TrEMBL record:
Taxonomic path: Bacteria, Pseudomonadati, Bacteroidota, Cytophagia, Cytophagales
PANTHER family according to UniProt: DUF218 DOMAIN-CONTAINING PROTEIN, INNER MEMBRANE PROTEIN, PROBABLE PERMEASE
Domain DUF218: 28-148
Highest taxon of source: Bacteria
Species this protein is from: Adhaeribacter swui
GO CC, any one term: plasma membrane
UniProt-recorded name of the protein: YdcF family protein
Amino acid sequence: MAFSEETIRLAQQIWDYHHVNHTLQPADCIMVLGSHDLRVAERGAELWLQGYAPWLLFAGGLGRLTLGLWQETEADKFAAVAQQMGVPAENILIENRSTNTGENVALSYQLLQARQIKVKRFILVQKPYMERRTLATFEKQWPGEQTEILVTSPQIAFKDYPNQDVTLEEVISIMLGDLQRIKVYPEKGFQTYQPIPAEVWAAYEQLVAQGFTSHLIAE
């Protein structure tokens, strides 16, 4: 399906907002959040191979998009990608029971506690359009002592992101769903507050009016 230049322009605004543009620094652990997108696993492995942290943690069981699509969990599938890229198995941690970001937080914390691994700085790796929501969720829900959180994602431009696994229409719809959650979830205690510029919210409203509503929640 072809979309107008205006639709692409509005979607690019949402895409740009979802990026937090953190400058990465050495950390105690790289945590890769599971999904259907193996490029996220590749980004996490690249960072480990570049020496950013001693541990590479993959979190994710089978979620809404992978349940019925994959036979093995997201974390196990991602870990296999990392090992194929050269990350030793002894440096990989696997949390493969969680089905959402909140469970990613809780179960990964339990795993690190059990292994007696202290994390003062995390690098979180997520899909490009989920950077900001991931930051907001971890800032609110990570237990224990204060932990610095840096977020990154596969270094892919918006126009190049759709592939055989996710269409442009799906990407736009998912981005709008995440932006809506960034707006409403702080009131529910799920995430920290993230300011949304007026022009970004205007772009959201115009795209919703165009019908990109499949990932919105009832408020």
